[in-house]
UniProtKB/TrEMBL annotation:
GO process annotations (BP): UDP-N-acetylglucosamine biosynthetic process
GO molecular function: UDP-N-acetylglucosamine diphosphorylase activity
Protein's name in the database: UDP-N-acetylglucosamine diphosphorylase
Enzyme Commission number(s) from the entry: 2.7.7.23
Pfam families (UniProt xref): UDPGP (PF01704)
Gene3D superfamilies xrefs: Spore Coat Polysaccharide Biosynthesis Protein SpsA, Chain A (3.90.550.10)
Amino acid sequence: MSFETLKEYVTAHGQEHLIKYWPELSENEREKLSSEIRKLDLADTNEMFQRAINLTKVILEKIDDDLKPIPQAHYESVPGLSKAKIEEYENIGFEEISAGKVGVLLLAGGQATRLGFGHPKGMYDVGLPSRKTLFQIQAERILRVQQMAEERTGKEGKITWYIMTSEHTMAPTADFFKSHDYFGLSEENIVFFEQGRLPCFDFNGKIFLDEKNHLSSAPDGNGGIYRALKTQGVLNDIVKRGVKHLHAHSVDNILIKVADPVFIGYCKSKNADCAAKVVQKSSPSEPVGVVCRVNGYYKVVEYSELTDEAAERRNPDGRLTFSAGNICNHYFSSEFLLKICDYESKLKLHVAKKKIPYVDENGIRQTPSEPNGIKIEKFIFDVFEFAENFICLEVARDVEFSALKNADSVKKDCPSTAREDLLRLHRKYIREAGGIIEDKIDVEISPLLSYGGENLKDLVENEVFTISPFHLKSIQETVTNGVNGKH
């Protein structure tokens, strides 16, 4: 594209300031800037800004009559299910895993900046006895659930692991997996793809320059997964492999049951196209979004959007009426994903006012102290309203949810709480299998040994645990790493 054509293009869309410093740029810098501008459809970009701004102007009246909890027919709770029902769902899930029909969508784009880590969050080690990272724990859960499916069905199937990174985490994530020999998984069953980015705007819709030859942009939110699935060829891969069920979750939940056969089985048995795992809200004021129905559509209503009356409303049995806390743990049928990615552009846009560094009219890069513009992002759960058969599965928080978001100084959703939540759960598994362990003893159970408390009885029954910290390993780990025990 010649400079004249480029100038014509940006001017036609009111973004001519983007080439203001063209005369000062080297040939390479001009090529970089021109390439970034060409990649944007400025008509679309301007329309998106306008749509985002208009959406924020529409202040939704909080009409509680339009707000309804998930109907009972679309909601089940694992703690309330019989053993037989759980086994029924689990067997269906294992059949699908053994047939190679299950994939996992891992949202792993985040850098652990709040943790002061500076690397992809999946590479973080919370200080378990084994020193395993989040990526390793989740990889080993996939290996174990594949093994369990084969034991149950007699057929060996592979789970495909689709890992969404960001521009900055793609290379380090791929390198990390390679250097750890993919944690025992087949390289061909791990697919890395990259989340998209959206320009950052000032309040008038002008795209910021981050440098004279570089546009300012930010990741497009976890709802950017739909666009990325389509543009990066992942949807085609899902179809080619015959994957029918996708379990999507964020990387920072240390208790995640990856490719959970109970969840897969529940969704298949109900013929769901989209589903959410939820936990009971701990209190009316807990700052977590709630899965509910608004005007007949399934949505996640942010805690700030609930009136106090709605947040505190209770059922006759004393439970909160709006108790289904969203934990970014979802199911999609591949059919639903194929459909949704075609009208991804209809997804709601969320606007955040931010302090965005920019190059000012004098060519000097400024770092503002007050919000000076907006970042636009999409959320993964905004597709719920398009589902034809949406269902919810409530799970026990102490078994399936512990987020890692903050540094230890915050004392909540931090490395210490994640580590303690996992070790507490493992003590519970040991007791359920007949072992004797005090709360002060830290024993970690390898995911390769046990996915959810199974396979422990022969090892721990009547055993008294006194060594802390201790790592209870699988046979394959004891062969490669020496005896069971402390690292």
